[in-house]
Amino acid sequence: MATKLIYWFREGGEDKRALLGGKGAGLAEMTRIGLPVPPGFTITTEACKMYYSLGEKLPPGLEEDIKCYMSGLEKETGKVFGGRHNPLLVSVRSGAPISMPGMMDTILNLGLNDETVMGLYEATGDERFSYDCYRRFIQMFGNVVLGIPHDEFERALSRLKSEEGARLDYEISPDGLKTLVKRYKDIIREKAGVDFPENPYDQLMMAVSAVFRSWNNQRAVIYRKINKIPDDLGTAVNVQTMVFGNMGFDSATGVMFTRNPSTGEKVLYGEYLVNAQGEDVVAGLRTPKPIAEMADELPDAHRELTRIAELLENHYRDMQDIEFTVERGKVYILQTRTGKRTALASLEIARQMVHEGKISKKEAVGRVKPEEVARLLHRGIDPGAKNEVLAQGLPASPGAASGALVFDSDTAEALGQKGEKVILVRPETTPDDMPGIVYSQGILTSRGGMTCHAAIVARGMGKPAVVGCEALKIDLEGRKAYVGNVVLKEGDVVSIDGATGKVYLGQVPLVEPSMGDAFKEILSWADEIRRLGVKANADTPEDARRAREFGAEGIGLCRTEHMFMAADRLPVVQEMIMAQTTEERRRALDKLLPMQEGDFYEILKAMRGYPVTIRLLDPPLHEFLPNVEELLVRLSEMRHAGAPEAEISKVEEILRKARTLQEMNPMLGMRGCRLGIVYPEIYEMQARAIFQATARLIKDGYRDVEPEVMIPLVGEARELSILRDLVVKVGEEVKQREGVDFQVVVGTMIEIPRAALTADEIAEYAEFFSFGTNDLTQTTFGFSRDDAEAKFLHKYLADKILKENPFAVLDQKGVGKLVQMAVELGRKTRPGLVIGICGEHGGDPESIKFCHRAGLDYVSCSPFRVPVARLAAAHAALEA
């Protein structure tokens, strides 16, 4: 039996989303529940997959099937496709199973030619409308199907408007539109080397192929990569009877959301244009009106849209993004889908719907993506600073950013890849600007509304955007922009505030974010659901306090080496390194002891009531000295300048020591517990500082402090045994001398494969394990992270040798097996062994899911990732 590749809207529904795509499933569902949907049919994603498997050719028999369905559409509408009288016109739209707004292609008014345009004129009595539809169709067909740049047609349109003295598109005369049709056809002949096809069925088959091809256009591929959407889903094609919003001032087209997609406020939100077609709104070619104004301009249509919005939201139990057309007063719904929204709106809508009884707390938590929470932690403009506003646009996507102005996507991409901060400035963005948008700090456009391409894409990516900034006059060819008398050249720095729509000249001060009520409430529900604990990696009291604000339940990694790098301590650390004898080294360590004790006192105090895991010194000692090349240059300069011999001798001594400490592979050399074995006095000083700080806090009335000592880079149980004895001995000495009691808890990092393989032996001496997955990934793969990311990892990812960067997302097949093995072996020896993870993977949602499945007790991540981890841990529990 042949595979069914086409479905009428009335045959489908949400249960066929994978086959019909999101748009097709939505159209089918709306048809099923009786909403006013123009009739049509969907060519399935299976047909798209077959198209690619056949070398970008339509599957055998599909053209005949399409013609058969078009005959059915003719019967249903009473119109004839390609007919001289009352012609049937259709739209051809993409629709992937997972929403990819604006990434693929659409063609409207298909079926028009030199004959059918006269039939449309005859049927409507409106010559201007008929030729307006025709010129739009030729432009879209030329761009989407034949690949002619959009700007070629826009230049011809601007020239004609200038000739006629028309300011807006709808002011062009019928004769002017006829002239434009001829010019558009000339552009196609010149740029594509073919004539515009007059046969409607040729148009239709070419359009279907073009929509299938758009699945793999650059912007769609980039969007899928960013949003981790599989490449093999394919897109459906929806062929739908045209309805017209450009039939006069009782007609309109627009986009609306059932709630505000920026704030989550429960209010009908959107925009419309009278006497226009859909691409005018989405492309930002005209600045639309707020949907609220329709209540006065087209009151009956506004009432009907309000009714439909409520019906659709109640049906789908989520905020909806709805495209509509009003044709001579009658409302038609062209699409509904779950609306893209900002992170703030996502939280607010989820919370509201729980309180409205529409969804459960678990559903609310499940709907808020962990990475969305991360976006809420973007910085904003400091409200206390005196900043001069340069211009005002629409606040399309919250967050603030500063950067150098660039006027095209390619430049933005090139500079962004070099790490430079840029703001992409365009009259309006199109899907072709995606590469530049990805690498920009934010987006600024002079045209467009809150539902234009730039606004939708920026909100989805969590980037700040200001759109419709009409005071901004852009000269793309001159690579300049003007705001009144102010001239902005490419490279000039501006700042944008996507929450207010304000644009500032130069760089402005930014402020750190804070958690709002909806944020806190959703996270409290997540805390009720999750099993995994969430701690923070924090090295300073400020980090510890911020981590607590974000809900951290302790510190999973406090790196003591960061404390040594302070300007007042580095000379003392270098003195310790330069010491020739143990006595000299101890004298230097005695100077460091009160400094370290003060650090630990403040961190333990900030995190009182929760465990604080302090890792003893890990990096090689040479990291605290200038590198050999720097020292050689300094010596050469000192000799050339005639510096005193004593100063030269001092630098020569540092150079000798630096050369002595040089290693072929320092990451696998004299570091971690090996330092503690060779120089036990270093670890002894650190342990003493930890326990003296603990004793002082207890005496000061803070009895709920919980220090834990972590020994790094253990690969052999005897290493941990020796260093554990040292730490316990120091702890007992401090307890006895200070007359206080506290627990001495010692554990280790599991960060080399041998530690995982012998975890049963190591667990005899460890009360906890913490996976240092950054180093464990390096040692498992045999990668140096810096070299891999700089030299070849991008190629491995591009060629799909690796699915993800293993330093960003935990490698479950390799590193993950070692983690599982260590958990099993460790708990076999010590059933109550506490196990966590403290590498960067502790803040990655996919890695957190693995940690949940592997039976870990907690994850630890940077303070700003703590809310992300709390939500991801709840998602892991929901999916288990």
From TrEMBL:
It catalyses: pyruvate + phosphate + ATP = phosphoenolpyruvate + AMP + diphosphate + H(+). The keyword Transferase applies. Keywords: ATP-binding, Kinase, Magnesium, Metal-binding, Nucleotide-binding, Pyruvate, Transferase. Residues 19-52, 56-290, 303-355 form the Pyruvate phosphate dikinase AMP/ATP-binding domain. Its cofactor is Mg(2+). The active site is at residues 453, 838. Residues 420-501 form the PEP-utilising enzyme mobile domain. Belongs to the PEP-utilizing enzyme family. Its EC number is 2.7.9.1. This is Pyruvate, phosphate dikinase. One of its GO terms (molecular function) is ATP binding. Mg(2+) binds at residues 751, 775. The lineage of its organism: Bacteria, Bacillati, Bacillota, Candidatus Fermentithermobacillia, Candidatus Fermentithermobacillales. Residues 518-876 form the PEP-utilising enzyme C-terminal domain. Substrate binds at residues 559, 615, 751, 772-775. Pfam families: PEP-utilizers, PEP-utilizers_C, PPDK_N. SUPFAM superfamilies: Glutathione synthetase ATP-binding domain-like, Phosphoenolpyruvate/pyruvate domain, Phosphohistidine domain. Gene3D superfamilies: 1.20.80.30, ATP-grasp fold, A domain (3.30.1490.20), ATP-grasp fold, B domain (3.30.470.20), Phosphoenolpyruvate-binding domains (3.20.20.60), Phosphohistidine domain (3.50.30.10), Pyruvate Phosphate Dikinase, domain 2 (1.10.189.10).
